[in-house]
Amino acid sequence: MYKGFYTRAKKDIYIINESNALQYEYAIKNNIQKTTLEFFINNHKKILDGSSLSECIFPINEYDIFLSHSGSDINLINKLAYQFRQAGITPFVDSHVWGYYDDLLTALDNKFNILERGESYVTYSYQGVKNTASHVHMMLSTSLNKMIDKCEFFLFVETKNSTITLQDQKKTLSPWIMSELETSRIIRKYSKYKHDMITEDAQVKAGMEKDVRIAYTIPTDHLIYIDWNDLLAYLSLNKYTKKLLYETVPK
């Protein structure tokens, strides 16, 4: 990762047609393939190959900017990702590329951890469910860290869904957002490109249970603030967006 930013989304992106954003999402979405998952699960011997499963379900490919966001803001993020793509910047949105964390958990638990199945209920092994959750969490967390490291830019999109204010401090209830922000803070800062060669025209690549709510103070002091309206204005100009990201410095 070369440079990190954060922005406060003040409004929806009305300049983007929602159907265009959805078509973009569907075009690139590569959800967990059931056939692939079934192959791994049904062809295991005594031990499931976690490394191969992780590489298949959470592949690390080439992207320019990592979009850190709340899952509740996916409609907004779809539009933002579409606009980045129009500007020649390839965005990484985890749910577009990897499917959902719960899909893999559910598949593994249904295969290995069912103790009893009735007409209207299913009983799972508590210890088994904890075990699969720890492994899937590790796979996803490791893959997210690798992707943040590999992307040239990092952008945290702050909204009322991603942060709350407690005792005059910005906090998040999402352990994933907290992990992504901490990773962006401590990860090595480097670039895949020679910046003295970059110009304006450069091409840079539900349940019934009550959940425990835990809030984390979000670390954003290492990120460069970029005004939401300025970001949208530059995105609408397409070719100038990379120039903004490379040349913006902390105020």
**What spatial order of strands do you see in the largest sheet?**
3-2-6-1-10
Q: Helix fraction?
A: 40-55%
- What gyration radius follows from the Cα positions, in whole Å? 20 Å
What does the largest sheet look like?
A: 5 strands, parallel
Task: Characterize the overall form.
Answer: globular
N- and C-termini, Cα separation: 20 Å
Order of helices and strands: EHHHEHEHHEEHEEEHEEHH
Mean pLDDT reading: 81
Q: What's the total number of strands? A: 10
* Helix/strand class: alpha/beta
Chain-wise SSE layout:
Blueprint (H helix, E strand, L loop, with lengths): L2 E6 L9 H11 L5 H9 L7 H8 L7 E4 L5 H13 L4 E2 L1 H5 L2 H12 L1 E4 L4 E3 L1 H25 L2 E6 L5 E3 L2 E4 L2 H12 L29 E2 L6 E2 L2 H9 L4 H7 L4
Parallel strand pairs: 1-6, 1-10, 2-3, 2-6
Antiparallel strand pairs: 4-5, 7-8, 8-9
Helix pairs in contact: 1-4, 6-7, 7-8
